[in-house]
Every structure is written in C-alpha cells, then in structure tokens.
Amino acid sequence: MSELIAVIMLAVCLTLAALRIPAALKGQNQATLLAFFLMSVVVALAIPAVYLPVDQALGGVNAANLVSRLTLNALFVVVGLRVADALSSRSVRDVITGPWGQRVFVATSLTIAAAFWAANVPVSSMGLNAYDDQFWVEMYRLASRMYPAFIALLLVPACYRVARAEIGLPLLRIASALFAAGFALVSTLPLILLAGVWTDVRLLEDLVTYLSLGLVASAPTIIWASKRHYAKKEKT
After folding, report:
1. How far apart are alpha carbons 177 and 53 in whole angstroms?
2. Residue 21 has pLDDT above 90, yes or no
3. What angle do the packed helices 135-164 and 90-97 form, to 10 degrees?
4. What was the pLDDT predicted at 164?
C-alpha cells in the first residue's frame, strides 16, 4: 500500500513541478519549483522500482537511502523559508537562517551520516527493512526525522495564527490551515519512531509521512491556482 501511495505522490509532485516551470523560467516561484523537485527525489526513492536501480548505480550499499534522508533535510530548509516568507514570519526565517538553525541543520545531517556509517547495511534493502534489528539503523531513522520536526515545530504556531486570523485572504487562511496540519504531523514522526522500540510502526510512519507531504504540497498549489484564476478573469 505504501508503494502505491508513493507512486501517486510522485505523479502529483512531478505534475506540480512541471506546472511551475514556465513561471520559474521567468524568475518567479523558483523556490517552490525547487521544493517540488526535492520532494520528487525523496518520494521517488521510496519506490522500489526506482530505489533499487539507483542504489545499484551507487554501489549497492544503500547510499540511495542516505541521499534520500539528506535530501529531506534540504527540502525542509527550502520549505521552511518559503512558508515563513509567505506568512511574513520574519522570526521563523531568522531562526532557520541564524546560528541556531544552521547548527541544527549541520548537527542533524552529520548525525544521519554518522549513524549510516556505523550501521552494517552492505546489501540494497528498500527502507533498510532487512536491517530492522540493528540499533544504528533505528538511530539513523530517528536522526533523519529530527530536522524536519525542528522546522515543523517552528512553523506550526505561525501557520495556526494566520489560519485563525479574522482578517486576510480566505485562501491564505485555508492554505495556512493545511500547512499547520501537515507540519503538526511531521513533528510527531520522531515520537512515532521511538514507539517503534515496542511495536511495528512502519505503516503508521508511511501514512503520516505521505499525508503530511500531501497537505504541505496542496497548500501552495491552492494559492497558485487561485492566482492564475483571478489573473485570467482580469484579462477577460
């Protein structure tokens, strides 16, 4: 089931990215295009038919999984800054780009790489599922969720405030509510992985991951589609 969800998500991300190429070529919404591209890479590497050939090309030692986890960190830098700008939240932008935000990014990325190096994963395995019994694999998975959770926790209050505001464009409030819901889900992923010490949480992790990605991807799409609609109406 998770593979089917990943395929659907990849198709959606690639479509949304393609729709933004004309504007990006004109210098508009380039950060949004980059976000959808990075999201497409992460989702594509969650599909066995993509992951296994890519990993074999990288040596067959699950390097593709490491690429996916580090790409996820980069994705949340772009998404965090883009959403902070959309909500005019200077404080959130300052944290992401400031010394503390940079330290968290570097520390989590290095921890991911270190845990991967410490783990013994010599043969390609989708999601490293063949190595579930390894401590360092579990630490690697947990580390890969920390930076997205950090960005999500920064953004949830700002998104919630805009969604609850009595003034402002209705579509911006709707998009903010979707962002708030998506980022709230992202912030729960470290706790879900910790619960995996006692029970199998793989399906729940996949569902929360893809649902949060869908919510976060749909929010800017609503605003973008609305702007195009009103732009066409003004021309007629």
Report:
1. 38
2. no
3. 160
4. 85
Higher pLDDT among residues 15 and 230, named by residue = 15
- Integer-rounded Cα radius of gyration of the chain: 18
Q: How many Cβ atoms from other residues are within 10 Å of residue 173's Cβ? A: 16
Tokens representing residue 151 in the block: 């960005």
Q: Which residue has the tokens 């962002």?
A: 179
What token pair was written down for 179? 């962002």
Of residues 37, 46, 31, the one with CA closest to residue 13: 37
Cβ atoms of 219 and 182 within 8 Å: the answer is: yes
Tokens (6 digits) for 211: 């649902």
Helical packing angle, 202-235 and 170-195, nearest 10°: 170
Least confident of 30-44, 93-107, 162-176: 162-176
Is residue 82 within 8 Å of 34, Cβ to Cβ? no
Q: Please report which helix (H) or strand (E) contains residue 144, including its range.
A: helix 135-164
Q: For the chain, give me the number of helices (H) and strands (E)?
A: 9, 0
Is residue 125 left, alpha or beta, with left meaning phi > 0 and alpha meaning psi from -120 to 50? beta
Q: Where are the alpha helices (DSSP H) in 48-134?
A: 48-57, 63-86, 90-97, 99-118
